[in-house]
Amino acid sequence: MSKLNMVGCLATSLLLGSAAWGGSIAVSVADLGRGPANAPADLNHDIIRHDTGTGRVTIHHVDHTGLDLIESEFTLDGLELTDDQAGTEYSAGQIIFNNNGTNGSGARANYEVNGRITSLELTSGGSNHNVNTDRLPGAGPLTDSGLRMFPLVAENSNANGTNANANAFVAPYPNKDVDDHSHVTGFRIISPGSGANIDGISIPSFRLSLYPIPANDDAFGDIYLYTDSSGGISAVEHEDDTPTTPVGDKIIHNLTDVLVDTEHTEVDDSVYYFNQMNTNGLTHQHYDTHPIGVRFKADGDSVQFSSPPQIELYRGGEVVHVALHDEGSGFLSDPEFSDGSEQGGTGLSLNWQRRGPIHAITDFDPGSGYQSLPTLTLSDPHGQGSGAQVTLLHTEAFQGGPR
Q1: What burial letters (b/e) apply to 26-58, b meaning 16+ CB within 10 Å?
Q2: What are phi and psi of 219, to 5 degrees?
Q3: Which of 142, 177, 300, 344 could connect to 131 by a Cys-Cys bridge, CB 3.0–4.6 Å?
Q4: Chain-wide mean pLDDT for the chain?
């Protein structure tokens, strides 16, 4: 046996048998080379030890001088999605690293979903949507209340996915005159308010009026807002309409009078418009250029509230409602819905959710300084996701014995 191998064997024997290692046991003896990357065999026995008490793994390289130190820091190496545990109903977001007690910082990652479009909402109706619009299905010349519609499409860039489809509904133009913006032809009750009263006495109803006062105010008649037990608006009715008035004869239509829920969208029952078979709406020469105020009156007195109602007014060509009828599939990134420009409009703004199983983990940054594993949380912006399992890959710190 060579002198060098005798030294190596002696060191190996001492390392395997020394009581100084406590709970550490040798789990393998092999010729691993001298330790640098791609090192060749060096005819010396190297030892891999495992401390059953701490879990630490140490590699001891032996050469003709004794034991050569080999060590590695604790590192975060990546994230992987557990097979068959991509979850459901997640929105794309961030993977949040809880670094408490780890001594580390800076680790981050994002995740994407393979989703469909859900919860489509109107955030701004824009204006001037006056070309390439259609009557409501079934409406003819004698039953056309003036409400118009046009299609909205979210195109899918994923060849294996499908588009999402919806319809937008547009406030009537007065007498179908697309150049007339001097009429208010619809409104939405954004908030019903509460505590309607006159001098502290609750009232069952009050009148909606506009300022400047419409030029046709007297001829148009009164719009009554009825209150519930909290003193908030619960119903709207023109003075000439009654619960038994046929829909086609009403002055004021609620959207639920003419639209039905789709599988994915309920009709917005807070939206009202003026039936163009019976009226062109409320008008003033300044309505197309000046702000319009809303006032609430009862027997000539101003109504007081604990919390005032909020009402949004519409002119012809403004989108008042959107309805999703096909969610599409396979959206791997956020799409853009058509914006109404084909209808001549501007300013249409929509909000939606893209939800589905987790598809990919992106933008991983391991950070630095970690000595133990952080816990992970999926941000899931819309809070509907469940069931996903993400595993954090890592390398434990290890260190060899002294030379």
Answers
A1: beebeebbebeeeeeebebbbbbbbeeeeeebb
A2: -70, -30
A3: 344
A4: 88
Assigned token pair, 172: 């009537």
pLDDT in tens, 376-392: 999 999 999 999 999 99
pLDDT of 106 over the 80 cut? yes
Percent of the chain with pLDDT over 90: 75
More confident residue, 399 or 332: 332
Angle at 254 between CA 119 and CA 121, to 5 degrees: 15
Q: Would you call 370 helix, strand, or coil by DSSP?
A: coil
SS3 sequence of 105-151:
ECCEEEEEECEEEEEEEEEEEEECCCCCCEECCCCCCCCCCCCEEEE
- Token pair belonging to 196: 């309607």
> What whole-number distance in Å separates Cα of residue 373 and Cα of residue 396?
10
Q: Are strands 24-30 and 46-51 parallel, antiparallel or unpaired?
A: antiparallel
pTM: 0.80
Residue 268, token pair as written in the block: 């917005």
Q: Return the H-helix or E-strand segment holding 3.
A: helix 3-17
Residues facing residue 245 across a β-bridge:
none
Residue pair 286/212 in contact by the 8 Å Cβ criterion: yes
**pLDDT tens, 117-147?**
999 999 999 999 999 999 999 888 878 999 9
Residue at 81: amino acid letter: L
